[in-house]
């Protein structure tokens, strides 16, 4: 119930102005977001690199219906990738892109614009030795996102995508995306989805996650295990070992600010550990989804406001 309300609020303009208007919100948001500027993203990338953690950087923003805004997002990624290159941080780095931030929802030719814009980001990543992974948004965008992924991979075979285990279709998508070179970031899923398309209970979602992991680990692609759940991590480690995978052919991923000690532990044990680091001004939707995932985060947020 609370999760559903927070996810509904994540898409409400009215709630957004209310939450953003509270000055103290920003300092609480800082737990999950690196900062507003490119320099903040680069600083956090350097800090994480110091203890062996890799990065995927997300320039915050989503659901744009403004072509100029979509182009500005592309420029932000180009600036970021150039900065990472200049700082010697680009090799092995990744950027995460929401297609709805680069034009997917534009009223005319949205998909074409998103494809062209994503292509520009891929070219900038290619130039500095980084990779791109397409985030996955709500289920109405899945086919479009996977279609754009196919087009991009024809030119840049290293482009990856997120699949969400809560969707009933995802086992089949995992099968289709488990071929050589295919980078799949498997997560549980963070949006409010109807029963017809998505498992609703935690136990059903977890079982689906494990079925998807089995397919990906047994396949020929590069599985990226995006979860903070200790059970999922342990199962993924076992499946990877059973499949003879080394730290070079699968990885673990977590969100910035969540279970940092576990991130350090996994990296310290020789695993490839990547942290998803969001930065920028458009933090509202991302932040609300983090609150929805864990009631304790809401308490932390409210306590933070109360003590300011
Ligand atoms: P689960 O929610 O069961 O949590 C397991 C444990 O992890 C909790 O008990 C708690 O200890 C910790 N935890 C989880 N979430 C927390 C939080 N917000 N704050 C504090 N602790 C928390 N989703 C999506 O729909 N599309 C996408 O593109 C992505 N991309 C993405 C990339 C990466 C790298 C990650 C790690 C996650 C995503 N997600 C996502 C989000 C994902 O779908 C999911 O909502 C969260 O990862 C939480 O699910 P867990 O697997 O961590 O398990």
Automatic annotation (TrEMBL):
SUPFAM superfamilies: FAD-linked oxidoreductase. It catalyses: L-proline + a quinone = (S)-1-pyrroline-5-carboxylate + a quinol + H(+). Pathway: Amino-acid degradation; L-proline degradation into L-glutamate; L-glutamate from L-proline: step 1/2. Gene3D superfamilies: 3.20.20.220. InterPro entries: FAD-linked_oxidoreductase-like, PRODH_bac_arc, Proline_DH_dom, Proline_oxidase. Its EC number is 1.5.5.2. Keywords: FAD, Flavoprotein, Nucleotide-binding, Oxidoreductase, Proline metabolism. It comes from the Bacteria. Residues 43-300 form the Proline dehydrogenase domain. Its cofactor is FAD. This is proline dehydrogenase. It comes from Amycolatopsis samaneae.
């Amino acid at each position: 119930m609370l999760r559903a309300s927070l996810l509904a609020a994540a898409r409400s303009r009215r709630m957004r102005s209310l939450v953003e208007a509270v000055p103290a919100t920003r300092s609480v948001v800082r737990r999950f977001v690196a900062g507003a500027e490119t320099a903040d993203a680069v600083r956090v990338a350097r800090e994480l690199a110091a203890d062996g953690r890799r990065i995927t950087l997300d320039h915050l923003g989503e659901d744009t219906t403004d072509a100029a805004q979509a182009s500005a997002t592309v420029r932000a990624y180009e600036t970021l990738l150039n900065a990472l290159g200049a700082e010697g941080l680009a090799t092995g780095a990744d950027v995460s892109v929401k297609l709805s931030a680069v034009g997917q929802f534009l009223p005319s030719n949205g998909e074409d614009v998103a494809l062209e814009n994503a292509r520009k980001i891929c070219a900038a990543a290619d130039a500095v030795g980084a990779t791109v992974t397409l985030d996955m948004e709500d289920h109405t965008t899945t086919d479009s996102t996977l279609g754009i992924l196919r087009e991009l991979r024809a030119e840049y075979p290293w482009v990856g995508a997120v699949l969400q285990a809560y969707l009933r279709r995802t086992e089949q998508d995992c099968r289709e995306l488990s071929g050589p070179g295919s980078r799949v970031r498997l997560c549980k899923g963070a949006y409010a989805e109807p029963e017809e398309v998505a498992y609703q209970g935690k136990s059903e979602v977890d079982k689906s996650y494990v079925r998807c992991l089995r397919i990906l680990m047994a396949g020929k692609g590069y599985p990226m295990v995006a979860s903070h759940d200790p059970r999922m991590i342990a199962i993924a480690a076992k499946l990877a070992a059973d499949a003879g995978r080394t730290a070079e052919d699968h990885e673990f991923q977590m969100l910035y600010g969540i279970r940092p000690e576990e991130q350090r532990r996994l990296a310290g044990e020789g695993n490839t550990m990547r942290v998803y680091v969001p930065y920028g001004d458009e933090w509202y939707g991302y932040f609300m989804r983090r609150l929805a995932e864990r009631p304790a985060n809401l308490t932390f947020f409210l306590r933070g406001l109360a003590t300011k």
